[in-house]
Specification:
About 30% of the residues lie in helices and about 25% in strands. It is of the alpha+beta class. The strands form 6 sheets. The protein has a 5-stranded mixed sheet. A 4-stranded antiparallel sheet has the order 5-4-3-6, with no helix packed on it. The radius of gyration is 24 Å and the shape is globular. The structure holds FE2/S2 (inorganic) cluster and fe (ii) ion. The site of FE2/S2 (inorganic) cluster has 9 residues, from loops.
Amino acid sequence: MKNSEKEKVRNHKKNNNFKKAFENRPKPYFSEIINNDDICAPNAINEVSNSFLGDLDIKRDRYFSIDFANLEEKYIWNKVWQFACREEDIPSIGDYYVYDILDWSILIVRSEENKINAFINSCLHRGTQIKPSNSCGYSKSLRCPFHGWEWKLNGDLVDIPCDWDFPHINKDEAKLNRVKVDTWGGFIFINLDSNPISLKKYLSVLPNHFKTWNMAKRRKAAHVAKIVPCNWKFAVEAFLEGYHVKETHPQALPYTGDVNCQYDYWGDHISRMMSGLGAPSPNLDTDNISDEDTIESMKDLVSYLDGDLNQNTNKIKPREFLAKSMRDILTKSTGVDHSKFSTSEIIDAIQYFVFPNFIPWAGYGVPIVYRFRPNGYDPDSSVFEVILLYESSDDSAESNPYINWLEPGDSWTKAEELGGLGVLFDQDEAAFKAGQNGLKASSKKGSTFSLYQESRIRHFHKTIDNYIAQN
Ligand code: FES
Ligand SMILES: [Fe+2]
């Protein structure tokens, strides 16, 4: 047999392995769980989109090599659309927000009611940061704190103190350097590339899938950040699969889908995981778990919304019971009527990934957003942020742009605004440290990933490879 034919046979076999793995995943499938719900989920939730993405190990040095981090800077961070802040972080003209990534510092400013600018946060005189890293606030103009060069909110130069000494500067040309900026769903994105593809194209199916979940109307209820002890990719990957739930978060198994999660991906930039809540994991002996047991186990889950489960006097199914409680709690806490939203949108964990580092959750009940960034140029640590975004009945509602920075030794439970989620992040973070240290100690060349449950991680690395290869 010729080599090309051998290759064909091998690929055919590998594709079949993937199909078999997909068919053999444990029941109940996510689609079966939601098919029994009282209020049906919107079309986007019913979509299935997966394929075989490979079965080879992924080299471990990309998690700790400085050389690989340099490639990422040059070919990924300089090219991708990055979620920088929320529109409600800069609600009024003159409000600004500084977004930092590696050595870059970007100053995002609202210059008119409907106009947002992004500039390199560096003075054109001698380079001083115009606003401090990670800061936000209000400024009538953009004035350098060193010698006082000053720009309008649109980046035009206003004043050079002692301009008699700068006859060699063309004032009309001394505008702040612009960075591409665009918005989707109340999220402000920046792109350091001077000629990137449009954000709309970049986001692929995302805006269409999210059209029923109006992210622009949401407001930040919490924003917690922490430097965590692993490479940014290792941290991202912990949120791309549900396979780790049994070992890492065993307390969630009585009411969480894990090995029966659904995974989908579209194009280079978007993937999704959906986990049905209110039904026990197939990892448990489900025949011996009563509906009452499941409901009892969910009390911790719901408490983070400050609500108590009502008495289940009518013996309704656990998913509907949870959905009813959550609808009541969310309607009360947000002022938005949640009674018509489907069971799945109210209770399930439906999270999308936008390459390379942004994870917005869909639906209404678990309104989380994750963001991951390298911690400067240290490949062994990263910045992990958790944001909670709730529906708002008031379009003009403002929210607090303040970030609660936890210290490296702090438990996530110290951030009380995260409620019961803090325990889960502590468990994930323990895996971060062990993972990063273990990867460095390994005598194996790469990490092994499963065909289906870890396919989003393969998708992530394929896109990393594509960016590096294309550029
Ligand atoms: S460095 Fe900014 S005014 Fe001098
Ligand atoms: Fe986790």
